[in-house]
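User: I'll paste a sequence; please echo it back and then give the predicted structure.

Assistant: Echoing your sequence first, then the prediction.
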Amino acid sequence: MKKFLNEIKNSKIGITIILSLLLFLYTIICAISYVSAVSTDISDSVFRLHVIANSNSDEDQALKYKVRDNLLNYMNNICKDCTSKEEAINIVSEHQEEFRQVALETIKNEGYSYDVRIEIGNFEFPTKQYGDISLPAGFYDALKVEIGKAEGRNWWCVMFPSLCFVDISSGIVPEESKEDLQNVLSDEEYAIISDNYDYGIKFKFKLLEFFGKSNLIVSNK
């Protein structure tokens, strides 16, 4: 009788362990599915700029910012009336050589002779904060600009909807830019990337950040 009771007890423990493992796996699968969907929606809604300096010297870093400013001025001139990410990418694609020439001219005017490589593609980005807006790590469509050896620190921003505020040190995103971003994201997606929401929303952002940094969510291109 005692043996029989022990078998029942052990059987219940075994079933409990199995059910717990199944619940854990189900939760993980649901989390990955949710993160993948939200991450894809966010990355599909923005077009980013990625500028890489020749080196980390003070001179090359200062040059990087001058190139950045002139590229953004040019971007604002040709894309000021864009209403979608696709339209912005198409216009930038048609003017890739012009972007390169803007960068080269800036570099030459500053007394350097670095070459510039321009590429539009889907690239991996770390988590980046723009004022009170944070974009999770993941793969994003972007215009990548490599200056010279491209061995220096990176600079990132969002070209569409524009979050490339002029005074990067102020950490202030214009309200108009936030409204544009809200227009291309769902309410929940915007809440996730905004710093002005509750713990539950912030936990979802941490999920996006964790899976993005762990490379569990990869490019869908």
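The helical segments are 2-43, 58-79, 85-94, 96-109, 175-184, 187-193, 199-213. The two ends are 63 Å apart (CA to CA).
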